[in-house]
Amino acid sequence: MNMHGRIIIIAAVLLAGCSDRSNKPIASDPGPDGALTLTPGSPALKFVKIEELRSSEAGPSVVLSGRMTFDEEHTQRVATPIDGRATAILVKPGDKVKQGQALIELSSPGVGLLQADAQKTQQDMMLAQKTVDRMHRMKVDGAVSDKEVAQAEADLQKAKSDVGRTTAQLRSIGVSATDPAVAVAIRAQIAGTIVERNVLVGQEVRADATTPLLTITNLDSLWVIADVYEQDLGLVSSGATVNVRVPAYPSEMFPGTVAHLGDVVDPTSRTVKLRCVVPNSSAKLKPEMFAKISLAEATGKQVLVIPSNAVLNEAGKPRVILVEGNAFRAVDVEVGPDIEGKVRVLNGLKAGDKLVTEGALFLKHDIDHR
Description:
- The protein is an alpha+beta fold.
- It has four domains: 32-60 and 302-368, conserved putative lor/sdh protein from methanococcus maripaludis s2 fold, CATH 2.40.420.20; 62-71 and 218-295, Beta Barrel (Elongation Factor Tu (Ef-tu), domain 3), CATH 2.40.30.170; 75-99 and 187-217, CATH 2.40.50; 110-181, Helix Hairpins.
- It contains four helices and 24 strands.
């Protein structure tokens, strides 16, 4: 082999060696459990920042995701008390209604049956009252036994109960027992806004139907329903003040109050239902809007907070780079939502742990390939 060929071979070997060294990981020594080991003075340390995790009372508010719903304390789902046919629909979605206002007119042969039943129970009660009066007079003369008197009084009580039942049925459709009528009106029990209508003129309606004919709600207040992780239960209490934000008005906060915290933890999501009441006099909030609920931190509660850029998300699974001496390894954690560049640690870390708060992504590749 001539001198020119030897030079080419030596140059190729040197280039291959340089290329191999350039592709090696930052650290050459594998740490425990596949961790990456960086000795003091390693060039890689210039690109990362390591901080010790400390508990604090000054963490960000707990922020929960939720949705707006009707205030069920001020909502009526209208149903018919009798079978019949809708002859007139007097309201439409968006209408404001007053308590007692007629909503739907029905034609029903059942009205006459209810009136006949009511008249019969009235007569039965009158007869039962006369029977009791007669039994009392006869008892004075010893003509009837105590058992017979007691039976007559029981019959009178039953007759009174039947009168109450039929009277209530007639009152619910707004007719009396004496006025002949085949048409009735279904009326609003609360003042509010018609937000849903599921009935048409001429439609047959039934008393046992599960779908409401109309839905009325007072939109001056709404509920916000959210899920609270069990780790956060100590930070939530009934009556606490909350601030609600919605995507439609990102710069506005709507104050509200925690009305109820659930009593049962969902075994799948490990969360508890939270209900807040939010005044809505401006009518900006709408049912079914998505909302963010900010809960002020409870006094004296210790929380762990880390920068959000310290968290690596891999297929939706949050991880951080934990530092133990010279070893760097990725660990799974549970964190809360990002609030102004900070997240609360829910599980996986403790006070005193050291982790990479800047440059975690820089080290991730080398840790994964140990």
